[in-house]
Amino acid sequence: MNDTIFQKGVLIYMQLSVSDLIQLVSIIISALLTIVSLVISVRALKQSQKSIELTEKSILDSNRPYIVIYRDYIQVSSTVHEYVIVKNFGNTGAVIDDISFSPILLDDIRGKKVFEHIAGIFIAPGQSISTVSSVNVFKREKDLPDTSISIAYHDDIKKYENRYSFSDNILHDILVSKTNPSKNKSVQQIMTTVSEEILRRQL
Do residues 143 and 127 both lie within one domain? Predict the structure, then answer.
């Protein structure tokens, strides 16, 4: 049976003219080129899809809200006040869902939790919300333990959650000039001190 099929195949091959062979080879080459083109097209399509996804992600990332919690220090006369600040550094507004501190962070003035009622507040791009956490940070008897911070917020597209930490160790690296007000100080000296603090805030 197999010998018969083989003999028929040889017979057909011998009956093909040169032009028929050329056409057959052309068809085979054309089919191979088509397959190669399809493979290249599929790869190009996948790369294009990845490029589109990366572009979309880049657009979303550049326009999303970035809400950060940090501490800053402002010199007021002879004391240095510590502020806890929540700021949206992104290009889109967001609603704050929750802010938690571990251990619980209390302010020095009222002894209440910092940002206890901030959940549900909308914060616009560039907007900051701040509160005094200490009126004389350098008068602490000892450093506070490291504070873990978690903030959750959302915009119209997505929910976000970030984690940070505060450490009092940074206070050992901060040096500020303290000025005690007195009746002998002129208005010019007072204005110079105030101007210095304003300029420092721009650094």
Answer: yes
